[in-house]
């Protein structure tokens, strides 16, 4: 496999792996995601789609390099989201109203019944799981930053190959 297919394949595999880990934690181990956890999944979906597009045979090498560079930017943005989440977990700053106790307001009696019937939404400032004192958001900081560096490096390699 040439680098023009290898790099997008590795980025796509990393995105699928990260999303599979999050979904396994959610559905396999009952760790309900908070709003910030869900926001951190979006960049993985976006980068995975960009990597999948880069795998198409019709995309020239320069296009693959551009898509890899866009993946690097998406992963950098995700690093920022994850750092924000870690800061909320450690109470360094306030989180979003949707995930730190600010409950959504019911507009109708039916909405109120639905809200009361289910469990309260998870809070972003409480860590439901940690390994060696690092939360999932903390691990995502490292993963997203590493993927941003790799995607940037891949973009530079693909640019030289073009």
Detailed description of the structure:
By secondary structure, this protein is mainly alpha-helical. The chain has a single domain, classed as Up-down Bundle (Bromodomain-like). It is built from five helices and two strands, in the order ααααββα. The protein has a two-stranded antiparallel sheet. Helix 1 (3-28) runs parallel beside helix 3 and helix 1 (3-28) runs antiparallel to helix 5. The longest helix is centred in the middle third of the chain and has 29 residues, at 61-89. The mean pLDDT is 90.
Spatial separation of the terminal alpha carbons: 16 Å
| Widest sheet: strand ordering | 1-2
Q: What percent of residues adopt helix (DSSP H or I)?
A: 55-70%
CATH class: Mainly Alpha
Outline type: elongated
Strand content: under 5%
Give start-end ranges of low-pLDDT stretches. none
Number of beta-strand segments: 2
* Count of structural domains: 1
Instruction: Describe the oligomeric state of these chains in a short phrase.
Output: single chain
Tally of individual helices: 5
Mean pLDDT: 90
Please tell me the CATH architecture by its name. Answer: Up-down Bundle
What kind of sheet is the major sheet? 2 strands, antiparallel
Give a quick rundown of the structure:
The chain is mainly alpha-helical.
């Amino acid at each position: 496999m040439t680098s023009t297919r290898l790099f997008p394949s590795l980025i796509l595999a990393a995105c699928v792996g990260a999303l599979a880990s999050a979904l396994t934690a959610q559905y396999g181990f009952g760790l309900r995601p908070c709003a910030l956890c869900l926001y951190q999944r979006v960049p993985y979906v976006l980068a995975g789609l960009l990597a999948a597009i880069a795998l198409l045979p019709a995309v020239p090498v320069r296009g693959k390099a551009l898509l890899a560079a866009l993946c690097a930017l998406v992963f950098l943005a995700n690093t920022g989201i994850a750092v924000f989440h870690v800061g909320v977990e450690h109470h360094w700053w306030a989180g979003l109203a949707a995930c730190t106790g600010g409950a959504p307001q019911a507009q109708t009696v039916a909405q109120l019944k639905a809200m009361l019937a289910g469990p309260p939404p998870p809070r972003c400032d409480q860590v439901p799981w940690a390994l060696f004192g690092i939360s999932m958001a903390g691990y995502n900081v490292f993963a997203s930053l590493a993927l941003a560096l790799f995607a940037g490096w891949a973009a530079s390699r693909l640019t030289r190959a073009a």
